[in-house]
What does this fold into?
Amino acid sequence: MSMKPPSADLKRLLDPKAIAVVGASNREGNIGRIIFERLVSSLRKLYPVHPREASILGHAAISDVAALPDGIDLAVVATGAAASVDAVEACAARGIPFVIIVAGGFSETGSRGEILEQRLKAVAKDTGCRILGPNSLGIFVPRERLDTIFVEHGDKALGRGGGVAFVTQSGSVGVEALGLASNIGFGLRAFVGLGNKCDLDELDFLNYFGNDRDTSCLAFYLEDIAHGRRFLESARAVTQRKAVIVLKAGRTPTGARAVSSHTGRLAGMDAVIGGAFRQYGVQRVVDDEELCDAAKCLALLPPARGNRVAVLTPAGGFGVMCADYVEVDQRGIPLAMARLSSRTVERIRAATLPYAACENPVDLTASADDAMFGASLDALLADDGVDIIICTAFFAPPAISDDLIETVAVRARQNAKPIITFTQYGPFTDLYLRRFHDEGVVGFPSISRAVRAARFIVERARILASLGAPS
It folds into this structure.
């Protein structure tokens, strides 16, 4: 069994005060240029390293790593594979504690790349310089205005920050998933691209973000798991405080072979991994949409105290579909349609139109207005037989206004009972979901995803109960 050094204090990686970019350039489209340009807005001390340039974007260039001043926290190396190894060795000799390597061309390419990667491992082991990558997209920490990612990744939509630490072995899976999630609102604490994991790996970031007060949920995309038992033991400790979600790729024989081709590592037996996740309180998802949806809702919603769901809608057909999704057992996490108390039914009937359906699912009809939604939500929130509310918030009915967002949001903020919204409004759907998200309301563009979110928070409560942790 390979030994791993103690998990690093990653503060100087994720919040560096001084950054060197090796391979920074004035040439448009150059990866080093893109990274340096992104870092300019971070307002940190920047040191471009280039042997032939006098200055880069107004910053005096330094000819080589050895000439860098003291106090550099992080070096981002944006050169070819072989040159990257030389640069990392120079960074370690200069006493730089963290290095991000962007280049590919290492163990994933065969024996020649494996030799280069072994040199990197030796640097980390012999000097204590901690390495993220190689083949890493780097890091993105919105609140710190820190961004080393050179591809499009929804950075503007994610710029408000949030509580999800998103750690991914595949950079492309990570940035595409986050880009899609940001369309409807997603609260990102940090993005970390692990790459080939020659040194820093998922265990380091599990331990760091598990103890980070600004992180409320950890989401991982992994193709192989280094130091599996230690990862699981740490996950069990972390998940008593915040949710840990893993998308483990390579579930099928073909997928496992693809993992070996992609990373140069074995994927592991899926049945064993799935059982271990359940035992140690890790919530497993099966695709990138589930990963983002689970992270979004578990970062914002409390664990459900039970599995009884009430549905509030101005469109009867969607209420029927929602009931179907609720009552069909999926993922081994059964939900049930709540039986409303007579007091709740009477409160809803008194606040709505005579032809509204006041049993669960509650159908306010297309004649509903904002006040009817508010009064009905109040009644459902007060009902002890309701654990979760799914509110289908539509803006097409003539008496519904944009004030419905605040009508729902103020109740979501003031009550511990989870409210999940589903909305569709043609080409404006994403816009309205982002507005809900900005007000702290979890929302999705389909009934199935809204109901699945309810299962995630029921599963979270079960995990806490099984671990003896307070919910």
